[in-house]
Specification:
By secondary structure, this protein is an alpha/beta fold. Helix content is 42%, strand content 21%. The protein has 8 helices and 10 strands. The strands form 2 sheets. An 8-stranded parallel barrel has the order 1-2-3-4-5-6-7-10, surrounded by 5 helices. The chain has a two-stranded antiparallel sheet with strand order 8-9. α2 packs parallel to α3, α3 runs parallel beside α4 and α4 crosses α5.
Length: 255
């Protein structure tokens, strides 16, 4: 079953309690708590308290949205373990990471091999804590095309390494559907981040319902995962309420 939720960095200026209240009012089921906004690396006490507050509001933890980037740290394992400590205290089932700092168009084979090696190491560390690792499907990284993403997963070759999908603007709708279908077929798809853009311009999610119907047709709606709202037009609560209602209706139509 696909359940609706929110990425907390959507409203980075709001407190965690304000986000919980808004999400609950909108009928959402889960939250990805973001590292650079609401749950800082290594803050086990704060993460545990936020877990309890989230559960008390009748919601679930969808993920821990870290900003750990592969090949961006002199001591990657040490840096990642700080994020992992917070994710564990938050009881997050998965931790989001980023596939480096270079787009696939400029990354050579040596860079890609080193990144895959580090991804495998990070996935292994998280596996020991029972937490899945999800690479963000994102421009400017090695998950910016379907081909480079699949190659990275194959090169890293670790059962605990997955992807978190979102519709990157550089890919056509057909390319997005192809990548999403392939991730699902390989059993490498975890959550989805939901928004609707025209180019790089944010638009109401309701305008993208037809497009998102195509995306969701690529995956098994009976498998448990979250679809998490992000990138609200104007960053307003009013627009978010409208977007959440449109997403909820879309999911109801699928069930």
């Amino acid at each position: 079953m696909i359940s609706p939720g929110i990425v907390s960095v959507t409203f980075r200026e709001q407190s965690a309690l304000e986000i919980l209240e808004l999400s609950s009012q909108c009928g959402l089921k889960a939250i990805e708590w973001s590292e650079n906004a609401h749950v800082h690396p290594g803050d086990e006490v704060g993460a545990n308290n936020l877990y309890l507050r989230t559960i008390d509001c009748g919601m679930k933890i969808a993920a821990y949205g870290s900003y750990f980037r592969l090949l961006a740290n002199q001591h990657p394992e040490q840096v990642f373990r700080e994020s992992l400590r917070a994710a564990k205290a938050l009881r997050a089932p998965l931790i989001r990471i980023w596939a480096g700092t270079l787009p696939s168009s400029t990354a050579d084979s040596e860079y890609a091999a080193r990144l895959a090696k580090e991804a495998k190491q990070i996935a292994e560390i998280a596996a020991a804590e029972g937490i899945k690792v999800a690479l963000e499907w994102h421009r400017g990284t090695l998950t910016d095309t379907n081909q480079s993403s699949m190659h990275l997963l194959e090169e890293a070759d670790h059962a605990n390494l997955y992807c978190l999908w979102q519709p990157t603007p550089e890919l056509s709708i057909n390319e997005r559907c192809e990548g999403l279908h392939e991730l699902a077929a390989r059993k490498k798809l975890l959550n989805l981040h939901a928004y609707y853009w025209e180019g790089d311009t944010r638009r109401p999610f309701a305008e993208g319902i037809h497009e998102w119907s195509h995306y969701l047709s690529q995956i098994d709606s009976h498998e448990d995962r979250y679809i998490l709202m992000e990138f609200v037009m104007g960053n307003t609560v009013e627009q978010f309420r409208s977007d959440a209602a449109a997403l909820t209706q879309l999911l109801n139509d699928l069930s």
